[in-house]
Amino acid sequence: QLQLVESGGGLVQPGGSLRLSCAAYGKGLDYNAIGWFRQASGKERAGISCISASGSNANYADSVKGRFTISRDNAKNTVYLQMNLLKLKYTTVYYCAALKPSWPLHTSPLEYYYWGQGTQFTVSS
Asked: Which of 22, 55, 63, 73 is the most interior residue, by most CB within 10 Å?
């Protein structure tokens, strides 16, 4: 059993910064990557970024390149998402998830099999 615990979120001004955390707990389960997703009400989950279990590879959606940075602390088994220059449209719920070990690094939500509970933040002036 793998448990993902998210933290962060809150209220931030447009153009501001926020860092989300995803801590993984559990033994005997493998995964290829941890991904971050956003899901607005009534919309499909959209991949934002993902990082391999080793931390050696990462992908970003075009909309966040140059503004968001994904990283991991292997000692703490925690993945971070640093979000800079936040836009109003990113007011939504963010989730982290673990990618199945048989799948290559990507951000399709169908191949992620353990999910955190989600964390919400608001970008507002």
From this structure: 22
> What confidence score (pLDDT) does residue 26 get?
82
Question: Average pLDDT of the chain?
Answer: 92
CB of 24 within 8 A of CB of 115?
no
Q: How far apart are CA 50 and CA 61, in angstroms?
A: 9
Beta carbons of 75 and 108 less than 8 angstroms apart: no
Q: Quick check: 116 and 96 in contact, CB under 8 A?
A: yes
Q: Is 48 helix (H, G, I), strand (E, B) or coil?
A: strand
State whether the Cα torsion 25-79-119-114 is positive or negative.
negative
* pLDDT digits 0-9 by tens, 56-110: 999 999 989 999 999 999 889 999 999 999 988 888 999 999 999 989 888 889 9
